[in-house]
Design brief:
single chain, about 500 residues, mainly alpha, Amino acid/polyamine transporter I, two-stranded antiparallel sheet, 19 helices, 6 strands, globular
Length: about 500
Amino acid sequence: MKKLFIKKPLHVLLEELHGENRLRRILGPVALTSLGVGAIIGTGIFVLTGIAAHDKAGAAVILSFAVSGIACIFAALCYAEFASMVPVAGSAYTYAYATLGEMMAWIIGWDLILEYAVASATVAHGWSQYFQDFLGTWHVKLPLALTRAPFDFNPDTGMLWITGSVIDFPAIMIALIITAILVKGIRESAGFNAVVVGIKLVIVLFVIVVGAMYINTANWTPFAPYGYTGVSFFGKTVFGETGLGGMPVGVLAGAAMIFFAYIGFDSVSTHAEEAKNPQRDVPIGIITSLILCTILYIAVSAVLTGMVPYNKINIDAPVSDAFGQVGLHWAQVLVSLGAVAGITSVLLVMMLSQPRVFLAMARDGLLPESFFGAVHDKFRTPWKSTILTGIFVSTLAGLLPLRILAELVNIGTLFAFVIVCSAVLIMRRTHPDAERPFKSPWFPFVPIAGVVTCLMLMFSLPEENWLRLFIWLAIGMMIYIFYGRKHSKIRKYVDAQK
């Protein structure tokens, strides 16, 4: 039992920064911030705003974005501290290994796999809907069988229904294209992302400026039709109202739903090993991208709910459809095109991050290193795990609906944030003298507040999400018991020191 909680010494983590099987250090603060913005701005603005407003919070989704942003700021400061201390691939998995032990590291690593894979599938679904919306402006329609997942979830009845489609073909197509780009290399991926980020920032500003001219303040009444709370415990409402499907609704329930929109900042920490000056640049990338995107999210959600009544928002392509509803069809075309570009960059960063988690776990022996730890001789990318990620993401995106995907990724992300905030508290106690180029301010308030707010949002998710999380973690524990613990390199290292 003691070996299950064996910790990876900090000096071992730092030694791993040297060696031939390293990733290229070519990312500066601008590139890292661009990756963060690329991951954050996209699905949150262009897709999830519609679901959260329509199903959970109404116009008060503005407050939902603010609540999620505050929770993320606490977690972001903790991520920044760890990333500056240990600039290696792996993100929260690596931090947990150094503080909470091997089994918790495995759990969080397995959880991150779920987070990035399902997030990527969610984003691919959003891309598909905007791509089809863009084609629709030119009177081009795909066959019904190829337009969406074969089933969907109705929040009013709490039941699944058959859509009449067979598979979401555009979602599969974009996932496979992004996979090919990622195998080619980080320099090309980062350059492509920077161009796309520039395009979507222009579109987002366009939405804010032009959309503000068509705001009807009557659409903000009632401002919070579902109330200001929405806290539940394993799906059972504790504070606030319950929707028709038996699920919690309100501002906090909306915050739990759109929390997905913020997860991009933590992907910056997964690229610490590819940063030129990680101790300085990674904290800058994390914090700058989060603050910028929070401001833009609040502004866009205010414009969207002001243009269209919350109950008439299109949940699949809410922003472009809002411009269509007010008669600006030319703007609808522009926004759809910008959304396609913007969501593409989100998908790129999400799918860029997951193979780095695989890589970190394989280096520790918890996954087969010959496959998951393989770095391409020419491109210096984890190419095998990138291809596997692409196949997995395209399968999920083609077969599962948006509502199920979005809520599933949220609980995994929140769980990861709870672990990172807890790990900062532990590391400050166990390694008080360790070099910290960036220190989270207002300690211990920040990590404690991060744990509390993230747990609150976790409990605001429906109980089905907890069930799915437990099933996923149970599968992971079986892999760890029968493979990971037997091949753990740190166990062999510690035994050799005795």
